[in-house]
Amino acid sequence: MTLKKKIAISFSIAFSILFGIAMLIIYYASVDFRNDQFRQRLVDKLDYISHYIANTPSFDRESYKTYFQDIEDGLFYEDVIILDKHKKLIFSTVKDKTITWNQAIINRLDNEKRIFYKQDQYEILGKYYLINKQAYYLLVKAQDYSGNEKLDHLAIVLTILFLLSTLLIWIFSYNLILRLLHPLDRLKKDITQINASKLTNPVKYGGNTDEIAVLTQAFNTMLKRLSSAFESQKEFNSSASHELRTPLARMSFQLENLRHQQQLDEDVSHVLDNIAKETLHLSEVTNSLMLLSKFDSATLQTTYQEERIDEIIFTAYEKVAKAFPDLQLDFSIKGIADPKLTLVCSTQLIEIAFVNLFKNAALYSYHPEVSVVIHESSTQLKVLVTNHGAALSSTDQKRIFDAFSRGENAAETTGSGLGLRIVKRIMDSHQASVEYKANTQHSSHTFTLRFPKSTTENSDPLPIQ
């Protein structure tokens, strides 16, 4: 999850929680207010009834209706019960049904004087009065239809308001964070585009004092230091390799002249052969270091062209065969019926890659033989280079493409340990891949090179039967 999404989600969740708490506070505050208001109306009702009793010694239904006909108390489904000092019913507004009351509540009125409680959808208030020196127990039962309806309406409004506000704040917060962090996205884009050839290009940012500006300045400072160190390393590798090539070439030429002199005895000739091999090895190491330095500094700008992979393979094999004349090549093509075998690449670099693979096969195989199989499809060219030789340990297999890495099977063979590393770098420069797989049962070593290709054919090619 990206940083802006985390910030937007965290902000939205925090707002939703706070807004939800505020909505709950408003709702329950309204509930308490409604309860207090309705209780006060019940109290006022009982106070009116007490005045009615005091002013009407012999009260009945007709006088009760007359007395309260002009009083608007807003009570729905109202019932009134009046008990005397012996807690016996002396008046009730209930019609056509059995009159009941909670005797325990009546008994509690002797001490508590006023009790409020709920029964189903009704709210009941009981109160003790002393009227004209006579004790009375008054009960009023009613529904707050209007108040409950308002609370239900308030709950719906608050719920809709909460959902809409939450949705809007989520959309608003994400777009706000997206806008605020847009410079960070630009910075990330600029950083990801930096490679070895762009170390001297600073990252640009329009802000002056914010945190992203400080981060950009720190990154540019680091970039300058890296560029300086990288250029120093590149210059040293290039200069050292270049300076070594000339004396090495002279040494090889002079040694070749000495070896062809007839008056040399066998021991001296053998020593000269060893020196020539070591000189050749040192020359190969120098050339490999120089090639790696060019890759690292990205100064090797080759114009890629459409080339045939089979021609490159045969050219590479011919070069290796001059040094290893016993090396045999088994070549085959598989895949579609009409293979083109073309890819856009640098002939020089791909040729170097196959030369290194063939030299690796010639040096470390039981028999000087290498198998090359090309599989062509509509999306890629796959080349399998296989030889048979001593098995590698699991540790050696993991670091086979590392620079200066040599396996246990190369203890008696001269080499720099850079050949397969160069193959890997060449494949990476072509957005291609190389993989190594060993088959211990058949003592085989297979390098799989995959080259992506774009096809313009209108129909899918037919596979070879």
Automatic annotation (TrEMBL):
It is a multi-pass membrane protein. Residues 239-455 form the Histidine kinase domain. The keyword Cell membrane applies. Keywords: ATP-binding, Cell membrane, Kinase, Membrane, Nucleotide-binding, Phosphoprotein, Transferase, Transmembrane, Transmembrane helix, Two-component regulatory system. Residues 178-231 form the HAMP domain. It catalyses: ATP + protein L-histidine = ADP + protein N-phospho-L-histidine. GO terms for cellular component: plasma membrane. PANTHER family: SENSOR HISTIDINE KINASE CPXA. This is histidine kinase.
